[in-house]
Design a protein that fits this description.
Length: 79
C-alpha cells in the first residue's frame, strides 16, 4: 500500500469544511502553521503521525477515525 498525500489532504479539507472551520482556525487548534496545513491539504507535504494526531484532535476525532476517512478518500486502495 502506498501513502497517498492527495487523499490525506482531501480528507482533512473535507472534514474542515464540514465543521465550517477556516485553515487559520484549524491550524491554530492543531498547533501547526497555516502554511503547513495548506500544503497538507494540497497534497504537497506529507503529514507525519504527530500532525495527523493533532489534526484529528482539533477536528474532534480519534486518530483512527481520521485515518478511516483518509482510507475512504483512497477508495480502499493506496494509503
Amino acid at each position: 500500500m502506498e501513502y497517498d498525500t492527495a487523499a490525506v489532504g482531501r480528507a482533512i479539507r473535507a472534514l474542515r469544511l464540514e465543521r465550517h472551520l477556516s485553515q487559520d482556525v484549524l491550524s491554530g487548534f492543531a498547533g501547526i502553521a497555516r502554511t503547513h496545513l495548506t500544503m497538507i491539504e494540497n497534497g504537497t507535504k506529507q503529514a507525519n503521525f504527530q500532525t495527523i494526531w493533532r489534526l484529528a484532535e482539533a477536528l474532534g476525532l480519534r486518530p483512527s477515525q481520521l485515518v478511516a476517512r483518509i482510507e475512504e478518500q483512497c477508495g480502499g486502495g493506496a494509503l
